[in-house]
Amino acid sequence: MRKQVPLERLLFLKQQLGFDAETQELLKSHGVILASHKEDFARYFEDFFRGMEETRPYLEVQEYPGQLQDIWKRWFEGIFTRDFDQAFVGWVWNSGMTHVRINLDHRFVNLGYCLARRFCIQVINSSIAPEERAEAMEAVEKTLDLCLLIETEAFLASTFQCDSEVIRGIAHQIRNPITVIGGSIMRLKRSKEITARAAHDTYNTILAESRRMEKMVQDVSSYNEVFHSQSAWSPVLLQEMLQEVLDECRQRYPVVGLDLQTGYAPMARRVLGNPEEYRLMFRHLLANAFEAVDPEKPVISVQTSLDPGTAMYVLVEIFNTGKLSGTYEMETLLTPFFSTRAMGTGLGLPIARVVAQKVKGNIMLYPVAKGGVVCLASLPRGDLV
Ligand code: HEM
After folding, report:
1. Separation between Cα atoms, residue 54 and residue 107, nearest integer Å
2. For ligand 1, is residue 91 a contact (CB within 6 Å)?
3. Fewest 10 Å CB contacts: which of 2, 136, 170, 223?
4. Tens-place pLDDT, residues 244-291
5. Which residue has the CA at smallest separation from atom 9 of ligand 1?
6. pLDDT digits (tens, 9 = 90+) for 348-360
7. Which mutation among 41, 49, 99 tests ligand 1's pocket best, with the greatest number of atoms within 8 A of CB?
8. Does ligand 1 have an atom closer than 6 angstroms to the CB of 62?
9. Domain with CATH 3.30.565.10 in the chain
């Protein structure tokens, strides 16, 4: 769920804050001194947020050591040395979108801005001539306020957009089963003589549609829960969890003659995240494979490995024979309420993706040339903690 940068609105906010050409000039003239403290600033941020239990995990799942320090350093330098042009405003906007995607509590971002303010006051008081401190401080205040406003706009837009898409999706999806149930009841009511067979068929239709709605309510609640909840992370044993969920699926979706292949890499024993959310994610991914497997040639394979691109991540590859019905873009398949199955809710894969993105992982789904579909989950490695 990506949203375009609303440049016009952001420039309006900039104007409302009184951030004008003079402010930009003042920033540039004092900015060199402030920006020269970027390394100290990034270290200060890292130490502070590593010291908090709620934010420490984000520093533990970086794609490379020091990734966040680099981001914070570049941001701190950028606000004092770059123009607040389209590219820079867009970058700050993206930080808000990213913070929502990884489910960072917005209060911690606010806290970050308070710390940045405090840090700047110290630098101004120690490094800028007393007669220039007031103007420097005013320009810094405006910059930080503007960044926070842009970030908050993105944060709200992203959260609101997601919620309203879900609400719209529910309204749309519920219309079909309600129409079918209503129509079936009307037919029963109208028929003077109804055979036991016809009544039985109608009851089955009503039951199937109400089960579909029940499943949708369940999936919508899960989606909402994972999207909004802040959850504690710990190392999770991957093989054990995958085996448990595989056993559940075999019972739930019996497939005659299933060839189930598994391979677990010893280096990828643990992933970092919330165990219950991971269980939910694997339930949906594996249920998807069991439901979609080709009944003529049923093969499902689950393999884990270290990500060849970065040893900080683990890959879980779930393959099933069968093909994707239709040629859909991966983004479409991962969009809430999109389903290729008549009775699917279209929330399984989106739930799995939200779980993965919260730990800075991802889910991809693609057809394989020799036949079959691969679902690839990239998840932060838990053996490093
Ligand atoms: C003043 C406060 C903060 C600022 C200005 C800020 C700024 C940014 C920026 C500019 C990005 C890059 C966005 C992009 O390129 O798409 C980013 C990403 C990110 N931020 Fe923040 N951030 C702040 C607070 C925090 C806090 C408190 C945490 C958690 C400890 C955090 C965690 C992250 C993470 C995990 C990413 C994603 C990195 C990636 O690309 O994998 N941020 N932030």
Report:
1. 11
2. yes
3. 2
4. 999 999 999 999 999 999 999 999 999 999 999 999 999 999 999 999
5. 95
6. 899 999 999 999 8
7. 99
8. no
9. 231-385
Residue 191, CB-side half-sphere exposure with 13 Å CA sphere: 13
Query: Tens digits of per-residue pLDDT, 65-103?
Result: 899 999 999 999 999 999 888 888 999 999 999 999 888
Coil/strand/helix, residue 351: helix
- The percent of residues above 90 in pLDDT, for the chain, comes to 61
Which pLDDT belongs to residue 315? Answer: 97
Closest ligand 1 atom to Cα of 116: 1
Q: Where are the domain boundaries for CATH 1.10.490.10 in the chain?
A: 7-163
- pLDDT tens-digit profile of 302-347? 999 999 988 889 999 999 999 876 666 677 777 777 777 766 778 8
C-alpha 365/C-alpha 351 separation (Å) is 14
The CB of 95 under 6 Å from ligand 1? The reply is yes
What CATH code is assigned to 231-385?
3.30.565.10
Ligand 1 lined by 94 (C-beta under 6 Å): yes
Ligand 1 pocket test target in 44, 54, 59, 68 with most atoms within 8 Å of CB: 68
According to the 3-state scheme, what is the secondary structure of 199-256?
HHHHHHHHHHHHHHHHHHHHHHHHHHHHHHCCCCCEEEEHHHHHHHHHHHHHHHCCCC
Q: Which residue has the higher pLDDT, 159 or 379?
A: 379
Sheet holding 313-320, edge to edge: 259-263, 299-306, 313-320, 373-380, 362-367
How many whole angstroms from 67 Cα to the centroid of ligand 1? Answer: 10
How far is ligand 1, taken at its centre, from the CA of residue 209, in Å? 44
The third-level CATH classification (topology) of the domain covering 7-163 is Globin-like (1.10.490)
Residue 376 near ligand 1, beta carbon < 6 Å: no
Give the confidence band of 2 by pLDDT, cuts at 50, 70, 90.
Answer: low
